[in-house]
Amino acid sequence: MDEILEARTLQPETTRPVLTANGVWFSYPDNPSVLKDIALEVMPGQRVGLIGPNGAGKTTLFLVICGMLKPSAGEISLLGRPVAFGKFNPQVALVFQNPDDQLFCPSVRDDVAFGLQNMGLPREEVEARVEEALSTVGVSRLADRPVHHLSEGEKRIVSIASVLAMRPELVMYDEPSANLDIRSRRRLIHLLQSSAETILVASHDLELVLEVCERVILIDEGRIVADGEPREIMGDEQLMEAHGQEKPHSLIPHQIPHH
Amino acid sequence: MKLAIDEYASLNSPFHRWDPRYKLVGLIILIFAFSFIRDLRLLLAMVLVTAAIYIISGLPARFILRWLRFPSFIILVIVLTLPFLSGEQVIASLGPLALRQEGLLAALLIAVRFACIVTVGITLLVGTTHLLNSIKAMRALGLPLIMADMALLTFRYLNELGQDLSLMLTSMRLRGFRQRSLSPAGLRTFAWLSGSLLVRSYERSEWVYRAMILRGYGQSSRPQGEYQARPRDALILGAIVLTAAALVAGDVLLGHNIAAILQ
Amino acid sequence: MHIPDGILPIQVTAAGYAATAAVTWYSLRKIKQKEDPRQDIPKASLMTAAFFVVSLIHIPIPPTSVHLVLNGLMGALLGYYAFPAILIGLFFQAVMFGHGGLTTLGVNAIIMGLPAIIATYIFRLRKIGNQESPRKNGVFGFLSGFVAIGLSVAMFVAILLTSLPADLNAVVEQAAIFALAIAHLPLMLIEGVITAFLVVFLRRVRPTMLDSL
Predict the structure, then answer these.
(1) What's the pLDDT score for residue C78?
(2) Is A36 in the same domain as A69?
(3) What is the value of ipTM here, to two decimals?
(4) Cis previous bond, A257, omega within 30
(5) Which chains touch B (3 or more CB pairs under 8 A)?
(6) Nearest of C106, C71, C95 to residue C85 by alpha carbon
(7) Where in the sequence is the domain holding A152, given as residue range(s)?
(8) How many whole angstroms from its chain centre is CA A220?
(9) Residue of higher predicted confidence among A210 and A149
(10) Closest chain C residue to the Cα of B165, Cα to Cα
(11) Domains, chain C, ranges and CATH?
(12) Closest C-alpha among B79, B84, B70 to residue B109
């Protein structure tokens, strides 16, 4: 039985951007200019989709935003403060492409508690937040399972719980619907739609982006090519195909209506 | 690679409910006491203690039979050859082979000690406790944090890798590889298979490291599971320690001599 | 090469635990001296898991098959983490498969782990002289694997034969040593060869792995 995903209340409105990036460049030692002159601003509560071909730099951008990688040039600030390289910041969270990379504790409960314990929270609060996170995503019944007994979809959902437990302001999702079955994918979409945090969703699943995001950024070869209304950008067939994408099926006007 | 060891760890016996830290201490004391025994007259006592522990734990017979059914190759070899190779007193001859008393008794001692230590060890460490909790108990008893972290991470990824290995072997077989072949090319294939697993693990570890840092690894000393010991836990430990002490004392008093039964 | 429970007298098993504790303490000290051990812990742990799984692969040597140990390679790749990694691997082998023993965990860690530490140094020797070729890596890889296993076998045989609770006359003992040594020679060669292939493979695919932790 699926538990009902709780709708969560919105944070109070502020006009300060959650994320600002200016002139950000990034290079790997063996791969120059993976990110070129990235500039963007994300306001609280926005749901932004990040689309682009493999190798465009989406994952790299996420790693730069959360301070795992240091930009070679440019500035990034989160909630008004510059991003500190390598520092623990529970206000920003990244959900990895591969949940096995993210769930490194042997049991579900341990994994969801991990971040909270490192935040120095007292035991009762840790337990309370673990329960809260698990029930928000609807997997309380998995709390005491060993992680290796979970299915792909369950692992994905648990990895989301393990970051949401820290109550971040910004959550970045890297290919969240990859390898999910239909039901899990629908549950994921519902979860993303009811999120109160600011979210960035990098995905090849264009239909998911259409359903969830009110803003889309198209990235190719490290540059932001387009930034704006999802239907406008994703409906522009020429633009999409020029950057290794396709117009999502639901935006294609049907000559012969079949649904 | 499914690990079936934890299947009975959620039952409910006095040993299941025993505080894992006390359990660990009791276990170590008892199995070392067992390994101390040399006097054959005490073997029966050892077997009785072992049987009692197993029965109280409520584990089904098939659980421990799985462990004892295929004893280590080395035990088999020793137990089967010692009776013919060691000692002076011959008690029976089967053709050219002479069955010697000392060797036979030594083999008996080894076999019984092995069976009892393994039974008690597995029952307490794995049969009545989730392996994970055993490791956490070690941490609480003073195992260095680095060791505990490594053990937990290793445990977590053993299963993933076991599955990766199965997939790779299947893929190899589908492309005609026979595991029976031993040749330079075959060895190289094994090397590449192993190498792939190692590289994958290495690469995955970079992501795991990021996942850990992003959630604050190394920030502060994480509080370990808080254990609440009850008087009953100390009592059970006391009983185990007394048993161990009795066995050891008995062995010393009886001469700590493997050939004692002959006198 | 794992000594099971029940054979060794308590003096040997206790000494084994004491020695293992000492070597582990020393290894951890060296690990903590590094700049940021946090980075290497996931690496060492996942590699431990990989080595564990690899040791489950069996290689056919007619009439039976053997399992790889690869303690030489562990020494080469893991550096100071090799000994703790081997200790953890042995623990899991004992509780998951009954391979090895609980009272003999300390002794087995010394048998497997000390040669791994020696292999670390042997493998580092490949840097002497200036050229750094696949062949040189392969040769030192072979040596690391071969020597590590050889030392393990030697320690295993020595401890086992001197600790049996029975008297073997000198002739039988010598014969046993001889037989065991001969029986393990193919294993030593195979470990050496596979370690060599592995080192060459890693150098091609992910050379940074060969700079030990």
Answers:
(1) 94
(2) yes
(3) 0.91
(4) no
(5) A, C
(6) C71
(7) 92-167
(8) 18
(9) A210
(10) C53
(11) 10-210 (1.10.1760.20)
(12) B79
Query: Token pair of B191, please?
Result: 């090397």
- With an 8 Å Cβ cutoff, is B189 touching chain C? no
Comparing CB atoms, the residue among C43, C53, C88 nearest residue B162 is C53
Question: Per-residue b/e over C100-123, b at no fewer than 16 CB within 10 Å?
Answer: bbbbbbbbbbbbbbbbbbbbbebb
Q: Are A93 and A170 in contact (CB under 8 A)?
A: yes
Same domain, A148 and A208: no
| Burial of residue B163, with CB atoms counted within 10 A of its CB: 0-12 exposed, 13-18 middle, 19 or more buried | middle
| Paired residues of A216 in beta bridges | A49, A228
Q: What residues does A21 pair with on adjacent strands?
A: A40, A76
A49 and A27 in one domain? Answer: yes
Question: What's the pTM value of the predicted model, to 2 decimals?
Answer: 0.87
**CA dist., res. A131 & res. A118, Å (int):** 17
CATH of the domain at A223: 3.40.50.300
Return the ∠ at Cα A214 (arms to A213 and A216), rounded to 5°: 75
Report pLDDT digits (tens) over A139-188.
Answer: 999 998 888 889 888 999 999 999 999 999 999 999 999 988 898 899 99
Class of residue C190 by CB neighbours under 10 A (exposed 0-12, middle 13-18, buried 19+): buried
Mark whether A72 and A101 lie in a shared domain: no
Count the domains in chain A: 2
Residue C142: burial class (beta carbons within 10 Å; 0-12, 13-18, 19+): buried
Q: Is residue A255 part of a domain?
A: no
Chain C residues 7-36 with CB within 8 Å of chain B: 7-10, 13-14, 24, 28, 31-32
CA–CA distances in Å: residue C67 to residues A99, B75, B247, C55, C194: 31, 18, 38, 6, 12
Ranges A9-13, B208-212, B257-261, C131-135, most confident? B208-212
The Cα B123–Cα B60 span in angstroms is: 11
Q: Chain B neighbours among C 89-148 (CB < 8 Å)?
A: 89, 91-92, 95-96, 98-103
In a domain, A108, yes or no: yes
